[in-house]
Amino acid sequence: MNQKPPPYGYGSGGGPSSSSNNTTIGTLSARAKQTTQSMITTLRPWGELLDLAALSVPYKYDEAMAHLRHNLSYFRANYALAVLVIVFLGLIYHPVSMVAFIVVFIGWILLYFSRDANDPIVISEKVVDDRIVLCLLSLATILALVYTDVGENVLVSLIVGLLIVGAHAAFRTTDDLFLDEETARRGGLVSSAAAGNRPPSSYTPI
Q1: Successive 10-residue mean pLDDT values, the chain, 206 residues
Q2: Where are the stretches annotated Disordered (predicted)?
Q3: Number of domains into which the chain is organized
Q4: Contact criterion met (CB below 8 Å) for 98 and 88
Q5: Which value, in Å, is the radius of gyration of the alpha carbons in the chain?
Q6: Is residue 56 part of a domain?
Q7: Tell me, what's the pLDDT at 152?
Q8: Contact 151, 179 (CB under 8 A)
């Protein structure tokens, strides 16, 4: 007896839901690869960051704030990675908590920060609202901190990391650091009007 071929979109794997799940996994994998590549390309050479000869005490508060804004824009990826490493070190004696933190962090990157408005999450052919994603990720983060009992460790590590980053950014001179116009504009160092009136150039010294 001849059997009818399965309807389009169905297969031995369980129908359209299986195809949708595969598509979601493929999208997340592609997004993870793209995010990783983007983070790697935005990292500045660590030799520039750790150049002790470039450290000097600012003469006044305004100079320190100018250094802070410039360096936070220039070394933003390096600073973010440094803070994460400090947080991981704070959890080194709590391996279960470290695994939970890594999972939550990856969830935030893949499901929220690496997406734009035109890239919604689709599950079983239904678009998931960003507010639901934000609530679920926030709840997962709170539960991970509460049930692993390392909220205090994470908070102290974050404060230490931010203090180190802030001190370095304030004392690191910026004479040899050059930002492109887009990065400078995002960091609030150049206004859009000023950037539009400036002749085209590859780099903008600050």
Answers
A1: 50 53 64 64 83 90 92 87 88 86 83 68 77 85 82 88 94 76 52 47 44
A2: 1-25
A3: 2
A4: yes
A5: 23
A6: no
A7: 84
A8: no
Instruction: Select from 101, 63, 85, 92 the least CA-distant residue to 164.
Output: 85
Question: Domain check: are 179 and 134 in the same one?
Answer: no
Angle ∠(179,185,65) on CA atoms, nearest 5: 75
Q: Could you give the angle at the alpha carbon of 59 between the alpha carbons of 53 and 65, nearest 5°?
A: 90
> b/e per residue, 126-139, with b = 16+ CB within 10 A?
eeeeeeebeeebee
Q: Model's pTM, two decimal places?
A: 0.62
Which pLDDT score, from 0 to 100, does residue 8 have?
43
pLDDT score for 194: 45
What gap in Å lies between CA 85 and CA 79, rounded to an integer? 10
- Element of type H or E holding 178: strand 178-179
Instruction: State whether 143 and 160 are in the same domain.
Output: no
CA pseudo-torsion sign 19, 21, 111, 91: negative
